[in-house]
Description:
Layout: E1 2-8, E2 17-23, E3 30-32, E4 37-40, E5 45-46, E6 50-52, E7 56-61, E8 66-68, E9 76-78, H1 81-86, E10 88-96, E11 104-113, E12 117-119, E13 124-127, E14 132-133, E15 137-139, E16 143-148, E17 153-154, E18 163-165, H2 168-173, E19 175-183, E20 191-200
Parallel strand pairs: 4-11, 13-20
Antiparallel strand pairs: 1-2, 3-6, 5-9, 7-10, 8-9, 10-11, 12-15, 14-18, 16-19, 17-18, 19-20
Amino acid sequence: xxxxxxxxxxxxxxxxxxxxxxxxxxxxxxVALGEDFSICGxxxxxxxxxxxNYSTFEWVxxxxxxxxxxxxxxxxxxPGLADLDNGSVLICLDVHGYxxxxxxxxxxxxxxxxxxxxxxGEDLTIIKNENVQLDGAASDYQSILWETEGDxxxxxxxxxxxxxxxxxxxxxxxxxxxxISAFGFGDCExxxxxxxxxxxxx
Length: 202
């Protein structure tokens, strides 16, 4: 702060007069949200805002999600259906300073990745000594992997629709379970689905 004085010299017989005013300097507000990032769309988003020299602040988004604990600088954002359809959401932290200081804001673009999906196909019955043409499907995956609980093999375990060659133990057991796993992008967790192959005698 600074104090300014005004002195007025009077004419006789009047007395001199003085007055003063104190001017306070306010530090302007500061806000930072960090870098843009990607996250699996079925996850909640924990935000990490940084604000200083503020009187109030407000979290806003251009989507239809909701903020939990929005009175905190570290709230959680739950993406809405429109956010997921758009594949992204812009979140901003608006900060208001003291007195005549202008408000400031910072924004963060968050990409919402679709979680993977996998379908192994319907359960099947085959005749002994037959091979199995699988009809699996997967979406929004980075890679896929077929696995067997038996001793057979796949023509290619990294495609949705390989051929499965039953092993001798599969035939003796009379059935085998085959599972497909789809590995998602970013932090999206893998998903899997299984089908049962029944091996009938001729």
